[in-house]
């Protein structure tokens, strides 16, 4: 009888890929986890219990066939494992790196619930697809039949790219328009290289180009081309812009120089990693080197900022969050990595104001405001009170517990809001929600405008990459159904 290749979680312990030491990794922007070796990947995949009802799969937004590709990996059938993984996920090597597995698939692993360490699903997923690229199994899309329909996609982030991939596989003509000079959206310019090295994103962009997807870069819809022009050029338009408008600070002194947006800070850092010249980085405006840095926020963007500041050579990095560690929205794994690298988390704290210390030399500096360059953050200590509408405990100020924190650079990582697209694009009939996100059907992405669809964060609000991929794939399927229905009517 053949030896059982699975259910080895009792004898084999959970073992993540080797993580580089903090003193080494906090000086560069390379990924911090090593790759599994073949034997180690097979060993860790063999720990899967092959559940009849796989909670890992049901808690994955893409409903990836996780038990299937774990079994195939454990038995050495890696090319088949890649085919199964790619069938439901447009970018498995990206999700394997940046998905919060602790909150999704791994967080719902049955063997974790039974007292054994969870299966290292994300690390195996990354290994499968990285191996597929190395072995040449990932190829450009070659549609069986070319279709006449054309789709214009606004935004080259994960939602737009996932839709582009699915539409090209069906033979649809696809053009992607993006405001940046490179595709990928936040995958390229928002997420630092130590979590997602940029060649991983660029090779997917190249694969899509080789598959026949056209990219129009440095194109700002509403300025360089009107929304109506796009509707006239294409049979359907997909809005996948994401949300980029930063939530602002309202405390006194928040207009001081040296208080910057997280998106600007991270974009500058990523552009420098590409070898680009960035004036604001060279001037020190968006560079933490030698500075006392305070990051405000507790999400994954805040984690990206604090870990970037460490790598840029900041004198000190503090992260202020108004709730405690257990209630922060960011990944606990990211918090642990940041602490190892030298970040100081100041829990239950919130800024109440900022003071500037203008110098004579700052008077003619266009980035210096009336408040001068920021020098101090006034910090309020908080405690958790009654739960708010979402069920989370609301932070309350502890009177008389304020103190000052010296700083040279403050980074706002308070989250993102949607831009006012109906006004920017002159489309008053494009319906939005009370939060400003586009009102669209979550199953199909259909908006209030005929032939116009929307997916990802511009519909959901700031969310996860994996949800944007799911939305893009679902919307592409809905578009194809609509195209087929119209073709059927025309043929009658």
From TrEMBL:
InterPro entries: DPD_II, FAD/NAD-bd_sf, FAD/NAD-binding_dom, GltD-like, Helical_ferredxn. Coiled coil: none annotated. Transmembrane segments: none annotated. The keyword Metal-binding applies. It holds the Pfam family Fer4_20. Keywords: 4Fe-4S, Iron, Iron-sulfur, Metal-binding, Oxidoreductase. Residues 151-472 form the FAD/NAD(P)-binding domain. Residues 25-136 form the Dihydroprymidine dehydrogenase domain. One of its GO terms (molecular function) is oxidoreductase activity. This is Dihydropyrimidine dehydrogenase. It comes from Pseudooceanicola atlanticus.
């Amino acid at each position: 009888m053949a030896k059982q290749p699975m259910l080895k979680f009792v004898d084999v312990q959970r073992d993540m890929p080797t993580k580089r030491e903090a003193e080494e990794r906090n000086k560069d922007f390379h990924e911090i986890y090593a790759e599994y070796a073949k034997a180690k990947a097979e060993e860790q995949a063999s720990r899967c219990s092959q559940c009849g009802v796989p909670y890992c799969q049901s808690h994955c937004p893409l409903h990836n066939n996780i038990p299937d590709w774990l079994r195939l990996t454990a038995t050495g059938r890696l090319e088949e494992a890649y085919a199964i993984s790619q069938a439901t996920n447009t970018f498995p090597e990206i999700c394997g790196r940046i998905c919060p597995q602790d909150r999704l698939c791994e967080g719902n692993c049955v063997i974790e619930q039974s007292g054994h360490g969870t299966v290292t699903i994300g690390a195996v997923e990354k290994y499968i697809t990285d191996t597929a690229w190395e072995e040449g199994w990932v190829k450009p899309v070659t549609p069986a039949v070319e279709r006449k329909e054309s789709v214009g996609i606004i935004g080259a982030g994960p939602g737009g790219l996932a839709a582009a991939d699915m539409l090209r596989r069906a033979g649809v003509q696809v053009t992607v328009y993006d405001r940046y000079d490179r595709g990928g959206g936040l995958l390229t310019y928002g997420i630092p290289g130590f979590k997602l090295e940029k060649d991983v994103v660029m090779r997917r962009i190249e694969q899509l180009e080789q598959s026949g997807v056209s990219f129009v870069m440095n194109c700002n819809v509403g300025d360089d081309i009107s929304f109506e022009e796009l509707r006239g050029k294409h049979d359907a338009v997909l809005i996948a812009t994401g949300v980029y408008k930063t939530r602002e600070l309202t405390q006194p002194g928040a207009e001081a120089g040296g208080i910057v947006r997280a998106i600007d800070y991270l974009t500058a850092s990523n552009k420098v990693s590409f070898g680009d010249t960035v004036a604001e980085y060279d001037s020190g405006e968006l560079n933490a080197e030698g500075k006392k840095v305070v990051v405000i926020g507790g999400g994954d963007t805040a984690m990206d900022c604090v870990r970037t500041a460490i790598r840029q050579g900041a004198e000190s990095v503090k992260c202020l969050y108004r709730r405690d560690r257990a209630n922060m929205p960011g990944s606990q794994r990211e918090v642990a990595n940041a602490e190892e690298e030298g970040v100081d988390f100041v829990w239950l704290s919130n800024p109440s104001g900022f003071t500037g210390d203008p110098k004579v030399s700052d008077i003619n500096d266009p980035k210096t405001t009336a408040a001068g360059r920021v020098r101090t953050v006034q910090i309020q200590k908080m405690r958790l009170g009654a739960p708010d509408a979402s069920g989370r405990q609301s932070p309350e100020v502890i009177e008389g517990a304020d103190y000052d924190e010296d700083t040279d650079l403050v980074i706002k990582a308070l989250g993102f809001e949607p831009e006012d697209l109906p006004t920017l694009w002159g489309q008053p009939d494009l319906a939005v929600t009370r939060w400003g996100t586009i009102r669209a059907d979550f199953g199909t992405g259909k908006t209030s405008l005929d032939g116009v669809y929307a997916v990802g964060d511009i519909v959901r609000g700031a969310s996860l990459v994996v949800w944007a991929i799911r939305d893009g794939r679902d919307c592409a399927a809905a578009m194809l159904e609509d195209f087929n229905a119209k073709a059927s009517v025309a043929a009658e």
